Amino acid sequence: WIVLGGGIIVAALYFVGGVVLCCTIVGIPFGVQLFKLAGLALLPFGREVDSTGSAAGLLPLIMNIIWLVAGGFEVAIAHLVFAGLMALTIVGLPFAKQHVKLLKLALVPFGARIA
Which strand (E) or helix (H) includes residue 114? Predict the structure, then answer.
């Protein structure tokens, strides 16, 4: 996963983005979510994303909407494309499943839990 599935590259990009966003006061919540994505992108096997019912309240909803508009949708599309490319071969199917897991978290990271 780390080499062939793009895990190290995706995790590094998420980490750098998180550091950049944490340099601003307004970007800190979004940077923290990128760190969450980086951790899952590095070692996704054996972990699940629980985003059902955990985003109770108005603030996570507003933050998820801002996240989607500001770039979360593009990140999710990228994971969808990577999942499609990985699914072209039988060997890549487990990697495609992990990209779909990252896609779920990339769509609605606020309030989601990684178990």
Answer: strand 113-114
Cα separation of the two ends of the chain? 19
Encode the chain (115 residues) as per-residue pLDDT tens digits.
Answer: 777 777 888 888 889 989 999 999 999 998 988 898 888 888 888 888 777 655 567 888 898 899 889 888 888 898 899 899 989 989 889 989 988 988 888 888 888 878 7
At 41, the amino acid letter reads A
Which residues lie across from 113 on neighbouring strands? Answer: 50
Q: Is 0.70 surpassed by the pTM of this model?
A: yes
Q: What is the DSSP letter of 3?
A: T
